[in-house]
Amino acid sequence: MKHHHFKGAEVSCCVKYFLFGFNILFWLLGAAFLGIGLWAWAEKGVLSNLSSITDLGGFDPVWLFIVVGGVMFILGFAGCIGALRENTFLLKFFSVFLGLIFFLELTAGILAFVFKDWIKDQLNFFINNNIKAYRDDIDLQNLIDFAQEYWSCCGAHGPDDWNLNIYFNCTDLNPSRESCGVPFSCCVKDPAEDVINTQCGYDVRRKRELDRQQDIYTKGCVGQFEKWLQDNLKFVAGIFVGIALLQIFGICLAQNLLSDVKAVKANW
């Protein structure tokens, strides 16, 4: 009789350990991201002076590692320990938190589609704001250089956006050697050069528009990013759909395990 009493009210080992394995990877990856972010902040002296977090006028790329790593660490911990210990509170937290992230992503995607022009304006503002802070943070500098090299662009709408930076602006009062220039990442690469010429952008904006085109990229990064999105729409959409399916799968696994745990407890 005891056997029949518990029949159909057992915790599925497959679901339990699959959810555990699924989340331990996220937990460890989140811990690695957090570690990299904290190490980067320690190297820049941010951890010893937390008030300097707000000093940077532009975007600090380390925030990506901190925020993404923190979310992955919390989610991974809740899902991993919740599955292993069959803890209903942690499993509920995991499901709700993951569901909330999914809802926010869906909302952001819809709003981005509806308010495309506003998003474009915000992207333009974001890039120009970071152009101003280009020399303030080495991580931000590397991020901008990578973006300009990858998308073969210069500035938000063109090279003259670099007038916003105190080192590159074209005013007569600017004593910088980089005055009226652009960063080396704006330069058209010469395949014959093995070593990057970091001075290739000096004085380039003193030239005529047609002469500039031989030396630097003249298209803005906003337009180039839009073009890249259109050219790679299937790939980008595939990534977002894949992430969404993983989140739904995780929620289903957690809810399935939660139902099993509740069913077993109801028979105690």
From TrEMBL:
For this UniProt record, give its keywords in alphabetical order, as a comma-separated list. Answer: Cell membrane, Disulfide bond, Glycoprotein, Membrane, Transmembrane, Transmembrane helix
Q: What is this protein called?
A: Tetraspanin
Major subcellular site: membrane
Alphabetized CDD domains for the sequence: TM4SF9_like_LEL (cd03159)
Q: Upper lineage ranks? A: Eukaryota, Metazoa, Chordata, Craniata, Vertebrata
Which organism does this record belong to? Takifugu rubripes
Say yes or no: keyword Kinase present: no
Q: Name one Pfam family in it.
A: Tetraspanin
Give the superkingdom in one word: Eukaryota
Disulfide connectivity for this sequence is 154-170
Q: Of which family is this protein a member?
A: Belongs to the tetraspanin (TM4SF) family.
Q: Which Gene Ontology cellular component terms are annotated?
A: plasma membrane
How is it placed in the membrane, per its record?
A: Multi-pass membrane protein
Q: Where in the cell is it found?
A: Cell membrane; Membrane
Known InterPro entries for this protein?
Tetraspanin/Peripherin (IPR018499), Tetraspanin_animals (IPR000301), Tetraspanin_CS (IPR018503), Tetraspanin_EC2_sf (IPR008952)
Q: Which PANTHER family match?
A: TETRASPANIN, TETRASPANIN-17
The residue ranges crossing the membrane are 20-42, 62-84, 96-115, 235-258
Please tell me whether the keyword Disulfide bond is annotated for this protein. yes
